[in-house]
Amino acid sequence: MIKQHYSHLKKNHPLKGILLALSGASLWGISGTFSQFLFQQRNINVEWLMAMRMLVSGVLLLAFSGMKKNNDLWKIWQTKKDRLQLSVFGLTGMLAVQYTYFAAIRHSNAATATVLQYAGPVMIAGYLALKNKKVPTRLECFAILLAVSGTFLLVTHGKANSLNISKTALVLGIASAVALAIYTLQPVALLKKYSSATVIGWGLLIGGVAISFIKAPWQAEGIWDGYTYSYTLFVILLGTLVPFYAYLSAVKIIGGQKASLLASAEPLSATVIAVLWLQVPFGLTDWIGSGLIIATVFLLSRKARNAAPPTIVGDKNSADKDAAHRPAPLSAG
């Protein structure tokens, strides 16, 4: 009887990981839409929301990491090389991916900004091909073609002489994809030595402290009512801390490749809610373009799965290494 019960739990273990990954991705997508509401309808400052989000989530994530046995919360600061890498990650990875994404939302909408950011995995594939001096495979070339075609349709609606979004929004969206690539690749060495919660927690805190010099947390602006308070709280906690924890837990259960595929629910949830709730115009061309960009995640994850050795599910080190090579979801931002 006990053996059967254990077998039942083990059988349902992957389902738990799938649900956690989908929940985390969906919360990220909803958070992006709520952020659009705060920026465009309540005049909340982008830098202020970033500072609050990163500082609160960073502190809470580090507190969670510190409660674990054999935690590496302070060990990461003992080596000069690790301190430098962590600082660089907090500024050029975590802070950059947060700012460009939020600014892209401010100048366009959550749906477009989130989808454009998902061109990041293609940039990662291109960078690794150049770094390793290898010609991109047919699959990588096809993924690049899909990403370029999808971006073209999304920002022009198929008309080469006009833009569907502002130039500022387009530049920020592409910059967000570049920042996502940096955010994914830069902390690989750290993630091989320390837990994901520790690395991401410190990254959030470092980025939050840095952006606070531009807009201090106590300098709140905008129109404050019940919606503003509730949506801000959602973005800070349910849009950052909870999905981070859910996603990292999913990576440990089902591995980074599967988790990254399920993270594609993020742009889908952001788009659906933005269209239904905020009445963001999103036509057939936009849906096709978004689908082409999101499809690249599936193609590149398939290539990585075929090339990489199998991950031992539940093993901390292997899960963190796997997570380091995954197409990172936004709001690791």
Break the fold down into its secondary structure elements and pairings.
Elements: H1 2-41, H2 46-66, H3 80-107, H4 110-117, H5 120-131, H6 138-156, H7 167-185, H8 188-193, H9 196-212, H10 226-254, H11 256-262, H12 265-277, H13 284-307, H14 316-324
Helix pairs in contact: 1-10, 1-11, 1-12, 2-9, 2-10, 3-4, 3-7, 3-9, 4-7, 4-12, 5-6, 5-7, 6-13, 10-11, 10-14, 11-13
Features:
disordered C terminus; 333 residues; mainly alpha; 14 helices
Question: N- to C-terminal separation?
Answer: 45 Å
CA gyration radius, whole angstroms: 19 Å
Unreliable spans are 1-11, 308-333
Outline the biggest β-sheet: none
What's the shape? Answer: globular
The count of helical stretches stands at: 14
Overall pLDDT level? 82
- Would you report the number of β strands? 0
